[in-house]
Design a protein that fits this description.
By secondary structure, the chain is α/β, with parallel strands linked by helices. The chain contains nine helices and nine strands. It binds guanosine-5'-triphosphate (GTP) and magnesium ion.
């Protein structure tokens, strides 16, 4: 019997902030590889999510949202997102279909240009009257680069399996580029830092200073399977420290507890998490720190 050839390909996941890109990548992978929050600009770096469907390895490239950047961190995020399509076999444009105006998605399409073939993915249809979908599709008609349109809910999973199947059959013949059991390219230390940042965003919401990042400083594995992780929450100004600490350190305690549980759930063994706050003035303008935080690629 002939051996079925292996296939492997890259799928870039692009779109405006908060469209549901990371939720979709996690749904494809079946595990949390990329953090999710109701706040815009949650994803700050390119993150790969991997899955295997029979003989095909699909490599999803989660990206920061595309918008009009002002600050240097924002500029590097948008650049990362736009560059993700280079070498991609398919480009998905994720759209929050509840938007009143689709101008920010149109702007992404214009930035990608007419030569970039794009698959339009209308997301969050669980929140939408089905009768509105046709009108939304009409609005995207002026963009000839859209080859196909899908309607999904990344949250409930509706339409996700169909889209995955559609992509699977279209991947090129190629050896697999990552080991079979790997789910992401994010090293564990960075992943753990992201899990803590997710709790910061979820628990502090608009109070969280934009200029906050998390760094895993030490990671110790013990023979009994448990792990000790020490992380710094890095702030740009010492005046911001109190927001994270909370009264008598209650806030940072609650954040640490939730992050620890989330890490344990995914790592499958006990975690001892130690969080502390560190101040590094104006780190966002320092490329060396941006690189260390994984935001700027070296
Ligand atoms: N109801 C509903 N909510 C969704 C769906 N997909 C995503 N969300 C929610 O939308 C919010 C943003 O989701 P993310 O996956 O973080 O969006 P993103 O596009 O990665 O955002 P950035 O990383 O900030 O660009 C979260 O609160 C998600 O739970 C969906 O299909 N339906
Ligand atoms: Mg995201």
């Amino acid at each position: 019997m002939d051996k079925i050839a292996k296939k492997c390909g890259f799928i870039a996941i692009l779109g405006e902030p908060n469209a549901g890109k990371s939720t979709l990548v996690n749904a494809f992978v079946g595990s949390k590889v990329s953090i999710v929050s109701p706040k815009v600009q949650t994803t700050r770096r390119r993150i790969l999510g991997l899955t295997i469907q029979e003989q095909t390895q699909l490599i999803f490239v989660d990206t920061p949202g595309i918008f009009k950047p002002k600050r240097s961190l924002e500029k590097s995020m948008v650049k990362t997102a736009l560059e993700a399509r280079q070498g991609a076999d398919k480009v998905l444009l994720i759209v929050d279909s509840r938007q009143k105006s689709f101008e920010s998605s149109f702007s992404v399409l214009r930035q990608l240009g007419e030569n970039q073939s794009v698959i339009l993915v209308l997301n969050k249809i669980d929140l939408l009257e089905p009768s509105r979908l046709l009108a939304i599709i009409q609005k995207f008609r002026p963009f000839p680069q859209i080859s196909d349109t899908f309607m999904i809910s990344a949250l409930t999973g509706e339409g996700v399996a169909d889209l995955l199947q559609w992509l699977t059959v279209r991947m090129p013949e190629s050896p697999w580029l990552y080991p079979e059991d790997q789910l992401t390219d994010l090293p564990l230390r960075l992943w753990a830092a992201e899990i803590t940042r997710e709790q910061l965003v979820l628990q502090l919401q608009h109070e969280l200073p934009y200029e906050t990042y998390v760094e895993t400083e030490t990671w110790e594995n013990f023979e009994n399977g448990s792990v000790k992780i020490q992380q710094a929450v890095v702030m740009a100004r010492s005046a911001q420290k109190g927001i994270i600490l909370g009264r008598q350190g209650q806030r940072i305690k609650a954040i640490s507890q939730k992050a620890r549980l989330e890490m344990e759930k995914h790592l499958g063994h006990p975690v001892h998490l130690f969080l502390f706050v560190k101040v590094t003035e104006d780190w966002m303008d320092k490329p060396s720190i941006l690189r260390e935080a994984g935001i700027l690629e070296s």
